[in-house]
Amino acid sequence: MDDDELLTIGAFAARARLSAKALRLYDRLGLLAPARVDAVTGYRYYRAGQVERARLVALLRQLDMPLARIAEVADADAGDAAGLLAVYWADVETRFAAQRTLAEYLRGRLSGRSSEMYGKFTVETVEVPARAVITESRHVLADELPAWIGASMGRLEEAARACGGVAAPPFVVYHSAVSMESDGPAESCLPVADEAAARAWAERHGRTWDTRVRVEPARKLAYTRITKAQVAHPQILVAFEAVEEWMKREGLSYDGPCREIYFADWETAGPEDPVCDVAFPVR
What we know:
Elements: E1 6-8, H1 9-16, H2 20-28, E2 36-37, E3 44-47, H3 51-62, H4 67-75, H5 78-110, H6 114-118, E4 123-128, E5 131-138, H7 145-160, E6 171-174, E7 186-191, H8 195-209, E8 212-216, E9 219-227, H9 235-250, E10 259-262, E11 274-282
Helix pairs in contact: 3-4, 4-5
């Protein structure tokens, strides 16, 4: 059949194995426009060569692909389209894996197995001295958090070179909850050796870098050490809850916002390597 042959919407719908209603929707969404619309009757006509695109759009919609990405895949050359689909599906599988883990976590909580989950974590306390820190704060949602932490720590490490160098492991303070609905703020912090140099640097560059200097007071921290794999959500939530449950048993109260202290090289660490302490200041 000639690809340029015009078909009525009914004939085209039958050829594409779709309904006329679906074709009208695809037109409204900007995914598949008719080849011609009669100015008098409003009848829609499609070219036979549009059948393959119509079927592709229908199949991609079954994958819950966003409309913009459907258009991108449908408009791409065959090789590029396959690559775009592969990238999209990898994102879907990553999201489903995280949701599966979250569902397991929630099942544990709802079935009363919280104490069993918390028992996997050893909680200890440590006294941390007062220290000068350079910081960067941001209102950020959970899916944006990992990229922002990495980027902000990179900026702070560069600044630390002019502040006597790094004096202790970096940490992130959560002044309010960070989730898909709550945006904190979170504060990246890097202890530096020379407070005076840090304040002088902040005077010159802090406004440009959105960087501040403050003194983090001496604190007692209750913490548990976790692996790189456990940093992922929601495993890290269990770790924080394990510390809070331990604090309750020990009669300790909160003395500041919770934090994550990163003491290992994230890039070289393996999934089972300890990389982070999740901690609460206590009194």
